[in-house]
Amino acid sequence: MSPGRPAAPRIVLVAGPDGVRAEGDKEIRLGHPLTGDHLDPGPPAEGVFAGWAWNGERLLARNDRYGIQPLFYRADATSLRLSPDPLALLPDDRPAELDHDALAVFVRLGFFLGEDTCFAGVRALPPAATMTWDGSGLRLRSQAQRPSGAVPLTRAQAVDGFVDLFREAVTRRLPGEPYDLPLSGGRDSRHILLELCRQGAPPRLCVSGAKFPPDPGADARVAAGLAGRLGLPHAVVPRPRAQFRAELAALTGQGMGTLDGAWAQPVLAHLSRHSRLSYDGLGGGELSQNESVGFIRGTPYDPADLPALADRLLNAERLAPHVEHLLGPHTAVLWSRERARERLVTELARHADAALPLGSFYFWNRTRRSLALAPFALGDPRLLLHTPYLDHALFDHLSTVPAHFLAEGTFHDQALRTAFPEHADLGFASAIPQRHGPVLVAHRLRYLLRFLAHALTTERGWWRSPERHLQRLLAAGRGPGAPQRVSRLQPLALYLLTLETVARHGAGGGHQGTF
User: What pTM was computed for the model?
Assistant: First the structure.
């Protein structure tokens, strides 16, 4: 937890001979269902939410259809601990044990699978879950949607269905007050903005964030062009002053669940100060035009040879070719590629019946367990954050679109051209090449120098890390390809050193960061 952020809510229940001892927050509501209460029985409502209630005899906890709202638990024969922050569930009196299977995957892909966390015994609540506990044991049931096959549709039917159902999703989430809207140069937020304007509910202000090099700043420029066409004011929130400090804060702020999200903190802080509601395009890319579509298109899903598919997946990720440089003799065994492959095979098998199995894999793992953390862990919990791409009817449609339409990599483009042809000429930021050269070299060097300065002044124990991650990072700076290798490894090295600190201190005090 970073300074200035309130302590995460949690409840601790321990059964003993004299009954159940309860500590912490006995009733909590997180996020916002569109209708009803967080704990209502039956299928989960629309929206992103989770909550629990302890009535002195029985605990009930539930969450949203996709398990997007972070909520974690740790249970044994006589106790239960529950919190939206996994760091709040670590033992106070001893170091936390790590989940080596989960970390073998994470250090290569950058996200966790299923309900895994980096800590042994700490689990994410599964999607559409109902958990009860009464001192005699834990009962957990998930009504998660099983992957379903494709529905026979023409391309026009698939695109028109996307357009119509997205309009209905936004209609269900129209604002009742002025609001600011995060706007990137991509498809997902553009579709949200155009639809809100079509329905007569434009934002008070469009806000773009500035990302770290080698990003060329195209997001803000393209977003400003779109806002100008619509006659809307647009502002760019400056990026964090130092990438190292931003990532340090984001790691613990997101419960050590992802390497992403650091750049978004200023935008989230702006929303916290200026809006009580806003919108997020979470899920839009993974469901309609996946950023990994090139890999998906070139990698057939063969349920009879999932180990080979897992190998190709590991080879495709940016971290995978370099991670061995950071692993010491102990972690190289505990977090081996073979261990990662085995865990991946188990998860990949769960998506065999999906219309687009790898698209389903990315949504339920990368989107749910990594990308969702920035808005719903780093963001202000009081903010009503609508996610129209997670509308149940729209999700059901997009997850059953025939695979070959999605694998073309232009499905969302087609939907935008159909719905808003007058803006079809405005390109997307992703088409603008990244900026390399002296500016990028200087930025990466500043990151490394801040890293080393922090280790010398604040975290001197990092130099005594049993796995020598910092020394290994410096050693990776030798030989061909060193600049790119070190750049890719710096965030992971920071993660591993922070994880050592957090695991050593447990819930009693983790690493502190600011940006």
Answer: 0.95
